Amino acid sequence: MAGAIKVSKTHLVRTELDSLLAGLDIGDAVPAERELAVRFGVARETVRQALHELLVEGRIERRGRGTVVAKPKLVQPLSLRSYTEGAERMGRTPGRVLVSWDDVRADAEMATALGVRRGAKVMHLERVLLADGDRIGLESTYLTVARFGWLRESFDPATSLYAALRASGVEFGAALERIETALPSPREAALLGTTTAMPVLMLNRRTVDVADHPIELVRAIYRGDRVAFETFLADR
Questions:
Q1: Predicted pLDDT at 7
Q2: CATH for 9-69?
Q3: End-to-end CA distance of the chain
Q4: Is 181 left (phi over 0), alpha (psi -120 to 50) or beta?
Q5: Which of 100, 129, 154, 205 is most enclosed, with most CB atoms within 10 A?
Q6: Does domain 74-230 have CATH number 1.10.357.10?
Q7: Which pLDDT tens digit goes with each residue over 155-196?
Q8: Average pLDDT estimate for 29-38
Q9: Cα gap 28→45, rounded to integer Å
Q10: What are the Cα distances from residue 95, in Å, to 88, 131, 159, 173?
């Protein structure tokens, strides 16, 4: 028929795979490329491309030498709440693994954002974020030593930083947050248990308290196949 739209073989295979996955449970094995190619009557490369799309979307995941149906993405609210609250809301078990905790000197941009002089000591806390033991994010938090140096004596980096700050009397006021897509560096990919070809969601945030005094700068990356963000919008 004139004007008919030609549908690619990869799209057709994706449609078949969507139907296949709908009948499987989380953790169930996905048939091998060779088996799927025979079943759908296409080349293995076509199946491989369709599976790669599902992998990037977080619908499936590699496990050993096989592929299984993945858990739903962890949906994080865009709010002044901790990662812990978002994970627990979805019935997931949050966790953190400390990568490094050291002092750095504030450069001009960081000094302005945190309200300190250039060269002032700033704590850099880097942690891998977990959900049910799976690595889903890598978070770098910067706080001034002058205001938050006490954390070194009492804070357990495996727990919620926001909970510790609130317990100390810090009242969160507002944050400016920017989210964009990126590709992880080799180091970041290794810490996240992914590859440099797998897109991540990069978040940059500056948070202030109710008196508009800076609290933190955060740079975090989240696996795009494991995490999604949501917010509530209303026109009132």
A1: 61
A2: 1.10.10.10
A3: 49
A4: beta
A5: 129
A6: no
A7: 999 999 999 999 999 999 999 999 999 999 999 999 999 999
A8: 91
A9: 23
A10: 11, 6, 7, 25
Reading the block at residue 122, the tokens are: 């700033």
Alpha-carbon distance 154 to 110, whole Å? 25
Indicate the domain borders of the chain. Answer: 9-69, 74-230
Question: What 3-state DSSP class applies to 18?
Answer: helix
Two tokens at 38?
Answer: 């025979």
| Cβ atoms of residues 192 and 207 within 8 Å | no
User: What are residue 178's DSSP bridge partners?
Assistant: 204
C-alpha pair distances (Å), 1 with each of 4, 6, 7, 93, 141: 6, 11, 14, 54, 59
Q: What is the DSSP string of 53-82?
A: HHHHHTSEEEETTEEEEPPPPEEEESSSS-
| 235: Cα separation from own chain's centroid | 29
Strand partners for 40: none
Whether 128 shows a pLDDT value over 90: the answer reads yes
CA distance 195 to 83: 23
Q: What is the DSSP letter of 29?
A: B
| Continuous segment of H or E residues that includes residue 215 | strand 214-223
